[in-house]
């Protein structure tokens, strides 16, 4: 049982680090938007940073509930110097897909912790909705 708990805590720590990385990532993206559509795009990125904070809080609280000590690390955010909106969205999309895969891996290990399972399912839903939204934003209309 101890090994199962340690695996869960390790996965939760990795997700906490990813969510905190997302906060840094989306704030940086918001600073790098220029042009006539800056205001709504900047707001969208900052809203995503706030969602990342919310996810990090939920994960950190679950870590401590399970007797763990939340990580202080943040996954590195690469600087690609690609700051046009489409490139930023594609970068974010790749990051979101990786994070979603981590949530799915955690879900497979949850076992009988119903509260954790429901939390993970909610976070998977949030991430999936976010990915679908970004996919729509990066898609071009074909006529």
Q: What attributes characterize this protein structure?
A:
Ferritin, elongated, 4 helices, mainly alpha, 143 residues
Structural class: mainly alpha
The CATH superfamily name is Ferritin, core subunit, four-helix bundle
Sequence stretches where pLDDT stays below 50 over 5 or more residues:
none
Cα(first) to Cα(last) distance is 57 Å
Number of strands: 0
Task: Please state the second-level CATH architecture.
Answer: Up-down Bundle
Shape: elongated
**CATH level 1 class label:** Mainly Alpha
Which topology does CATH recognise? Ferritin
Helices and strands, in N-to-C order? HHHH
How much of the sequence lies in strands comes to: under 5%
- What's the structural domain tally? 1
Using the CA coordinates, give the radius of gyration: 16 Å
Mean pLDDT: 93
Structure annotation, total helices:
4
Description:
The chain has four helices and no strands. The chain is mainly alpha-helical. The chain has a single domain, classed as Ferritin. Helix 3 runs antiparallel to helix 4. The longest helix is centred in the N-terminal third of the chain and has 30 residues. The protein is elongated and about 55 Å long. The relative contact order is 0.16. The mean pLDDT is 93.
């Amino acid at each position: 049982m101890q090994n199962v708990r340690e695996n869960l805590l390790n996965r939760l720590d990795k997700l906490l680090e990813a969510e905190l990385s997302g906060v840094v990532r989306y704030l940086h993206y918001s600073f790098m938007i220029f042009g006539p559509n800056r205001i709504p795009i900047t707001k969208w990125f900052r809203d995503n940073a706030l969602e990342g904070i919310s996810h990090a809080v939920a994960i950190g609280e679950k870590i401590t509930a399970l007797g763990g000590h939340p990580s202080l690390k943040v996954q590195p955010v690469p600087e690609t110097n690609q700051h046009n909106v489409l490139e930023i969205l594609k970068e974010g999309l790749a990051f979101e897909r990786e994070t979603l895969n981590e949530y799915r891996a955690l879900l497979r290990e949850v076992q009988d912790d119903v509260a954790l399972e429901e939390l993970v399912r909610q976070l998977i839903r949030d991430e999936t909705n976010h990915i679908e939204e970004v996919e729509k934003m990066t898609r071009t209309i074909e006529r």
